[in-house]
Design brief:
The protein is an alpha+beta fold. It has 1 helix and 7 strands. The termini are far apart.
Length: 138
């Protein structure tokens, strides 16, 4: 009788795990999809905030400075600046290889060392004689 009871308990537990493990894997997979989406959405919002701050600093005139108290998103792999004839293109490359390109109608310079290696710092945006300088704040 004891053997039959333990066998029945094992069967019930086995059936529970057969249904429970796939459900847990499904929820974990969905969580990871939502997490990746939220990380990318945060990065896009960060880029839009940086664009807005850079424009405000530029139109504020020389000497204007704003410090953004936001962490550089971990989903952004690198930031590159390319000068064009009538402004600046800023290329944000994500860890998945995709890129977002922003256009600024003014000169923009990245200063302050290796941006690729930094992930958590405040960002200083300053107008230096008509050129917007973006750098890690000290």
């Amino acid at each position: 009788m004891k053997g039959q009871l333990s066998l029945e308990v094992l069967l019930v537990l086995g059936l529970i795990f057969v249904f429970l493990i796939p459900i847990l894997f499904y929820f974990f997979y969905e969580y990871m999809l939502v997490s990746d989406h939220m990380t990318r959405e945060y990065a896009i919002q960060w880029i839009m905030d940086l664009e807005r701050v850079a424009e405000n600093v530029y139109y504020g005139g020389p000497g204007t400075r704003i410090v953004m108290d936001q962490m550089l998103p971990t989903s952004i792999k690198s930031i590159q600046v390319k000068e064009v004839s009538n402004g600046t293109l800023v290329v944000y490359e994500f860890v998945d290889g995709t890129q977002i390109v922003s256009y600024f109608p003014m000169s923009v310079v990245l200063a302050g060392g290796n941006w690729d290696a930094l992930t958590s710092f405040k960002i200083k945006v300053e107008n230096k004689n008509g050129t917007v300088e973006i750098s890690p704040a000290s």
